[in-house]
Specification:
about 375 residues, alpha/beta, Rossmann fold, 2 domains, six-stranded mixed sheet, elongated
Length: about 375
């Protein structure tokens, strides 16, 4: 949620992000960046339903509170575009690298036109994604993997948040609250994005003020995870803050975090109620519904109209910050809400651009409404 939007963090996003650019790949000819190709984007959605467009979504995720919302985004996009001949397959590998690699290879074999994949471990996915690119399959990275495959000739864009900047946003929330030392739990051992988040926190608080605790498979053994977190606090009495990088880890651990410690989480899940109840300081929101919805839309625009987005930069869906100041206006009944649009532009809308150089924000991008900065929300469930 755009709210506070980490104003001071995100206004520097353009300077902090270092991303490479790729040229446009145009099958059957050449085109220079800046040209409008094959008509308007509207034409891409007005084609015959006889056109068959296979899109494969392959992630390392599970079916927990975060990825279930991502999946709703994919499902809705598939439903919205079904009449245009779009079919979408989905694989959620539950942090099983072999299963994710198999999912990418299956997408190649099935004739997918576009593969949208998360990249927790770039080395593991290098070979299958390189193979896909050599076969002319368009590559979109989602959620994790910013910059990992920019060099592939058919790589289009990354959809997600800049994890280091998001981590800095979390660090600033702790610093504002007067927190001296924070325990950060990394719940997936091979996920570089989680390490980047912790690094961002350290940039704000300092390395000595952040203790990282890596618990592989933390969500699969919540009792064990709680025991390890409790032991960490018992061993280091200077710890007065706790940051979980997934609400399915953070919320259960509220029971074992010492009274008075400040707690924050990445991603939302059930965190809003905890924030409203005063049990949690903040949540970092990356709008995973958009991370699921947008790749399917971008895939169709590319296949039918050769439209590209980003122009070398990522399409950012976050981070936004939910805290006590704005948590009361966020709906807690559904988990698929998104922000409505406004005319103001944020770091996210600045980062999203088309190949023609015309700035374009995602259809439900970050917004700041009225002088109070209060967001407007609507359900997509």
């Amino acid at each position: 949620m755009d709210i506070e939007h980490g104003n001071e963090v995100l206004e520097d996003a353009d300077e902090l992000m270092q991303v490479s650019r790729r040229g446009l790949l145009v099958k059957g000819g050449a085109a220079a960046a800046g040209l409008t190709m094959l008509g308007s984007p509207a034409a891409a959605f007005a084609g015959s339903s006889a056109t068959k467009i296979k899109v494969a979504v392959v992630t390392h995720g599970d079916t927990g509170s975060f990825w279930s919302v991502f999946k709703k985004g994919v499902d809705q996009a598939a439903k919205d575009l079904k009449s245009r001949g779009v079919s979408v397959t989905q694989v959620y590998a539950h942090n099983d690298v072999a299963k994710q690699v198999a999912g990418v290879n299956a997408a190649i074999s099935s004739g997918a036109k576009v593969i949208a994949t998360s990249v927790p471990d770039a080395s593991a996915l290098k070979d299958p994604l390189t193979k896909a690119s050599k076969k002319g399959i368009e590559i979109i990275t989602v959620n994790s993997g910013l910059g990992a495959f920019d060099s592939l000739p058919t790589y289009e864009v990354h959809i997600g948040q800049t994890e280091d900047i998001a981590g800095q946003g979390a660090g600033k929330q702790f610093k504002k609250a007067g927190t001296k030392k924070v325990l950060v739990v990394i719940h997936e051992a091979s996920n570089q994005a989680l390490v980047d988040r912790a690094t961002g926190v350290k940039k704000i608080l300092g390395g000595s003020a952040v203790k990282t605790l890596t618990i592989p498979g933390a969500k699969d053994d919540i009792p064990g995870t709680k025991a390890k977190v409790k032991a960490a606090f018992n061993a280091d009495k200077s710890l007065d803050g706790f940051l979980g990088l997934d609400p399915d880890v953070t919320i259960p651990c509220l029971d074992v975090v010492p009274s008075g410690a400040k707690v924050g989480t990445f991603d939302v899940g059930g965190a809003i109620k905890e924030i409203q109840a005063g049990k949690m300081l903040f949540a970092i929101d990356q709008q995973q519904y958009l991370q699921g919805y947008l790749p399917v839309v971008f895939a169709v625009l590319y296949v039918t109209n050769l439209n590209t987005v980003g122009n070398g930069a990522p399409v950012l869906t976050g981070p936004g910050i939910i805290n006590k100041a704005n948590g009361s206006v966020v709906p807690t009944s559904g988990r698929c809400w998104v922000r409505s649009r406004s005319s103001s532009r944020s770091a996210t809308s600045r980062a999203a651009s088309t190949g023609s150089g015309i700035r374009a924000s995602p259809p439900t991008g970050p917004t700041r409404l009225r002088s109070t900065g209060s967001p407007r929300f609507r359900s997509r469930c």
